[in-house]
């Protein structure tokens, strides 16, 4: 069982918007603004899409946005495109021996 | 251009030892917070370990006491020494850099597969 909770799957049609949630605790998401989101294609290394809750690295589409409320972070992808179909993982710093925790991943299907 | 290339994975029997390497280019490992992250087949990501610029090291509870992270500045290489390997250590192991003062991993290697099985 993963430390952060994500839905196993979400789906949407091209052009639509979807939101993926990531629920943690007061030891991680609830206290620290160190939430990241990663996109991963099968057989490939993850790629950071959002860091520090809502910041986009250079080169990442503005269609990707992040937010946080309480112990839950969210990734929103607007104007869905076929190439957005991938697995998405959230992560957070945690005040424990295990410094970084991940969610179990959400598989996005673009219908 | 930043590049990370892992090697050293393979098939190992339970209880055995293995050392993974991650050769870096485009930056210095001694000036970065270097991490290992693993992913079991068909599963999610799991942070394993970090080595700070001041050589402080930290480990996930699941590997504490069995794994050791280190680096060789002369070779610009990160290592992960893995002892007392178990079946649940089977995973693709990625090395990754931490972005500045954040806790996000901005550069990743391609990964190396470790399979623990008799």
Q: Spans of chain B with pLDDT under 50 lasting ≥5 residues?
A: none
Q: The biggest beta sheet of chain B, please?
A: 7 strands, mixed
Radius of gyration of chain A, in Å, reads: 13 Å
Oligomer: heterodimer
What is the tally of beta strands of chain B? 11
Give Rg of chain B in angstroms: 13 Å
- The ordered string of helix (H) and strand (E) elements of chain A is EEEEEEEEE
Overall helicity of chain A: under 10%
- State the shape of chain A: globular
- What's the N-to-C terminus distance of chain A? 28 Å
Q: What is the number of helical segments of chain A per DSSP (H or I, 4+ residues)?
A: 0
Largest sheet of chain A: 6 strands, mixed
Low-confidence region ranges of chain A: none
Largest interface comes to: A-B, 25 and 23 residues
Secondary-structure-derived class of chain A? mainly beta
Based on CA inertia axes, which overall geometry of chain B fits?
A: globular
Keyword list:
heterodimer, A: 111 residues, mainly beta, globular, B: 118 residues, 4-stranded antiparallel sheet
């Amino acid at each position: 069982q993963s430390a952060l909770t994500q839905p196993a799957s979400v789906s949407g049609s091209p052009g639509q918007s979807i939101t993926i949630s990531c629920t943690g605790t007061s030891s991680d998401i609830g206290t620290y603004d160190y939430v990241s989101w990663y996109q991963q294609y099968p057989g490939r290394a993850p790629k950071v899409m959002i860091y520090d809750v809502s910041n986009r690295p250079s080169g990442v589409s503005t269609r990707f946005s992040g937010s946080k409320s309480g112990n839950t972070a969210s990734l929103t992808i607007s104007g869905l495109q076929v190439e957005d179909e991938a697995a998405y993982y959230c992560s957070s710093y945690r005040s424990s021996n295990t410094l970084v925790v991940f969610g179990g991943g959400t598989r996005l299907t673009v219908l | 251009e930043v590049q990370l290339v892992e090697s050293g994975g393979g098939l190992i029997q339970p209880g055995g030892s293995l050392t993974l390497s991650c050769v870096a280019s485009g930056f210095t490992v001694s000036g970065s917070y270097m991490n290992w992250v693993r992913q079991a087949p068909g599963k999610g990501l799991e942070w394993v370990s970090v080595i700070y610029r001041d050589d402080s090291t930290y480990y996930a509870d699941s590997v504490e006491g069995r794994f050791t992270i280190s680096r060789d500045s002369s070779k610009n290489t990160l290592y992960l020494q893995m002892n007392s390997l178990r079946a649940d250590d089977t995973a693709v192991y990625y090395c990754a850099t931490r972005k500045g003062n954040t806790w996000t991993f901005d550069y990743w290697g391609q990964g190396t597969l470790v399979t623990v099985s008799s």
